[in-house]
Design a protein that fits this description.
Elements: H1 2-29, H2 33-49, H3 54-60, H4 67-74, H5 83-107, H6 111-135, E1 146-150, H7 161-170, E2 175-178, H8 185-201, E3 205-209, H9 212-218, E4 222-225, H10 232-239, E5 244-249, H11 252-261, E6 265-268, H12 285-295, E7 300-302, H13 311-316, E8 321-324, H14 326-329, H15 334-347
Parallel strand pairs: 1-2, 1-8, 2-3, 3-4, 4-5, 5-6, 6-7
Helix pairs in contact: 1-2, 1-3, 1-5, 2-6, 5-6, 7-8
This protein binds 4-methyl-5-hydroxyethylthiazole phosphate (TZP) and magnesium ion.
Magnesium ion (MG) is lined by residues 209-210, 226, 229.
């Protein structure tokens, strides 16, 4: 029976050490008071429950003769290369140790005590789920539907970007991209500070075209990149996991590549000829849109030359989200135009 105490003693230590690694991650790495507190309670509980059996546990301890140490030194299966692996390994260590304690206590006729360890094990399963949420990106899930609004001062008939965005927000826009090609950095920055304030207040997703630096400075929800912009993987490293990254694509090959690049959505176009974008490729037509609808499992927005008069054609190919630049910012009555377009999109094919 001493040998069973030896197993229990080893597993109490194993479980406590596993919890300690996780607790320190929650405390110093994720700054999560709630999870840290729950782990601490478990760590104390694991030791406290067996306190009355401490003499037997210590008597049976014989670390020098533990054959496991040599086995561990010879193997490299416990190497870890990511946070996910580190967290998983320690939750598994903890759960396995609790199960071993539980089973051995039963043989020692300590059935009630074994049930306490079963309770710990179940709390740990739940906590593991909670803990992993800390590793999940916190960026907004972008469910692209409806109208995607984009600014363009030069086509706004003298109205400022601020005025135009105010109208977009008033008519219920859910996502707005700041796209401005002809202003200085400082002008763009100042406009974006204001626009971030306005979009935040109205819970509108705010995306910056091109400017990763400004997006980070104003805490925008995302950045939108083109095929000739900086590599998505490197931008992700820079902006972190919480920022949305959109990428313009113009061909099936680019859409396929986007799938493995970790972008949150893609732009699909230009569907028709557009005069808004100067360095744009020839229209890719509706076929490419159809390809994306059928084959690419990523949120997408159809863009390029889309107007009220050709909207039904775009919707008939299955598009759920449509971007319009000049059609909206150049409209005499921006609010009225948005209302009409939104109704058309929500009805689908006209
Ligand atoms: N990307 C592809 S086409 C385009 C952009 C930004 C411009 C779309 O503008 P418009 O006025 O809706 O044709
Ligand atoms: Mg660009």
């Amino acid at each position: 029976m001493d040998k069973l105490y030896r197993i229990i003693d080893a597993n109490i230590n194993r479980a406590s050490e596993g919890v300690r690694v996780l607790e320190d991650l929650a405390r110093f790495y994720y700054n999560d008071k709630n999870i840290c507190g729950k782990l601490k309670e478990i760590r104390h509980g694991i030791r406290k429950e067996v306190m009355s059996h401490l003499p037997s546990l210590l008597d049976s301890r014989d670390s020098h003769k533990d054959v496991g140490l040599e086995v561990s030194k010879e193997l490299k299966i416990d190497s870890k290369t990511s946070m996910i692996e580190l967290i998983t390994a320690n939750f598994k260590r903890l759960q396995e140790a609790l199960r071993a304690i539980e089973e051995n206590l039963k043989v020692l006729n300590l059935y009630q005590l074994s049930k306490s360890y079963e309770d710990f094990r179940f709390s740990v399963y739940q906590l593991e789920k909670e803990f992993f949420k800390l590793e999940m990106p916190k960026r907004k899930i972008i469910d692209l539907k409806g109208l995607y609004c984009i600014t363009a001062h030069e086509f706004s008939n003298g109205r400022s970007n601020i005025e135009v965005v105010e109208k977009m927000i008033n008519s219920g826009a859910k996502i707005i991209q700041y796209r401005e090609k002809y202003k200085s950095h400082i002008e763009k920055y100042k406009e974006c500070v204001k626009l971030r304030e306005m979009t935040k207040e109205s819970d509108v997703i705010f995306i910056l075209n091109d400017h990763i630096d400004i997006a980070m400075m104003v805490k925008a929800d995302g950045v939108h990149l083109g095929q000739d912009d900086l590599p998505v993987e490197k931008v992700r490293e820079l902006v972190g996991e919480d920022m949305i990254i959109g990428l313009s694509t113009h061909s099936p090959k680019q859409a396929q590549a986007a799938l493995s690049q970790g972008v949150d959505y893609i732009g699909v176009g230009p569907i028709y000829k557009t005069y808004t974008k100067k360095d744009v490729c020839d229209p890719v037509g509706l076929e490419y849109l159809e390809y994306v609808v059928k084959n690419i499992d990523l949120p997408y927005v159809a863009i390029g030359g889309i107007k009220e008069h050709n909207l039904s054609e775009v919707l008939s190919k299955g598009a759920k989200c449509v971007a319009m630049v000049t059609e909206i910012v150049g409209a005499d009555d921006i609010e009225g135009k948005i209302e009409k377009v939104k109704i058309s999109i929500s009805k689908g094919v006209l």
